[in-house]
Amino acid sequence: MTSTSSVGIVGGGPAGAELARRLAEAQIECVLFEAQPEREKPCGGGLSPRTRAVIPAHLQKIIHGKSVYHVISASPSGKQISIQLSEPITIVSRREFDQGLRQAALSAGARIVHRKVLSIKRRKGLFVLDDREQFPILVGAGGFNCIVARTFAGALPVWDLAAAVGYYLDADYAAEIRLKFGKNLIGYMWFFPGPSIVSAGIAEPAPIFQHYAAEGKLREFIQHAASHLPVGRRYTWALPSLCADTFDSRPIAGDGWLLIGDAAGLCDPITGEGIAYAFKSAALAAEAIICKDLRIFPQKLRSEITGNLQRAAILKDRFYRSRFLDWGHYAVRKSARAREACRLFMEGKMAYPEFKKYSLLPEVAAQVFHLWRWWKKFRKK
Ligand SMILES: Cc1cc2nc3c(=O)[nH]c(=O)nc-3n(C[C@H](O)[C@H](O)[C@H](O)COP(=O)(O)OP(=O)(O)OC[C@H]3O[C@@H](n4cnc5c(N)ncnc54)[C@H](O)[C@@H]3O)c2cc1C
Hints:
Number of domains: 3
Bound molecules: flavin-adenine dinucleotide
CATH topology of the largest domain: FAD/NAD(P)-binding domain
Number of strands: 17
CATH architecture of the largest domain: 3-Layer(bba) Sandwich
Largest sheet: 8 strands, mixed
Shape: globular
């Protein structure tokens, strides 16, 4: 026997839980499926000021974490910079954060089923899950390997993924975030001090990711940054890191179905952040479902989210060039303007198209002029 509700949502992470809450508040009957409600996710858990700003005011109370105002970053050749943020990055436990979001959905009236959805069929215009529940509308919010996305849009190919390996260090660590870029590393290593554990990891494009080598680099980084901390559980995971073309070619909605969050590939290809996009895409999906017009979802997603991510995908290779990163770290040390741009970037307050505003050409021109004057004086002598 199958039961029918209006909307089925597969995946109870930030994207799915937020959508369920919004629909329930709009009196739309929905069922949220979550396979692993107790799991601590392999995620840095970093909520930048930009991410916190997209979380609705009445949900802010579920954000319990460590507020970090200080980021130390090292370039491939070892140049180190220290950035003081004006607003903190809050680092949360993803288990507690996601549970809080699901609790908010439950309180609003959503139904939550703790089960892994294993099959999807279409029958008489309805989506039938595991031959048990059926829905006229189905939303995929199950992360990068979501069953709804695999069924209707196709699995993300390896070139649209990044791979990560990391460790949880069971310790209360000094409140600073550490980042390390490396030669021949199209990604970065991180040290995110959470409320009770530190998440340390390394991520790179999946096609070139070599576990053994990546883990070696990460261990070296941990040894250097905090050799006194005990290395705990290891995790490996993948996250979407879409190529620029994929944002145009991969469908994110169709007849009665749509994808949100990581399932739609909405993760920043440079930084790997996705929680803000999970919230934003959930809000857009709720709007489309409430208006009973799913066609507006892909249009709005394109104008409000994917433009910025596509820009990041285009810039990615250049961003991770050793020369650019070394020069960038040097510029941040020398120029107040570059430091300001770096701070805004880390706080998530600068979209990629705005990078141009912070062109360092005036600084470079001033340096060249200074050198030229010095050279003229030197020749006169
Ligand atoms: C190592 C790493 C570090 C990261 N660090 C950050 C960071 O610091 N800041 C940031 O903003 N982003 C970060 N991200 C990205 C962030 O984790 C994701 O973008 C975000 O979790 C996406 O939310 P989501 O709800 O779309 O998917 P998810 O959080 O992945 O949630 C999907 C949910 O669906 C459930 N599910 C999957 N399949 C099924 C099924 N068949 N049936 C039922 N349930 C199912 C899963 O159990 C899961 O709970 C990081 C990612 C990684 C891998």
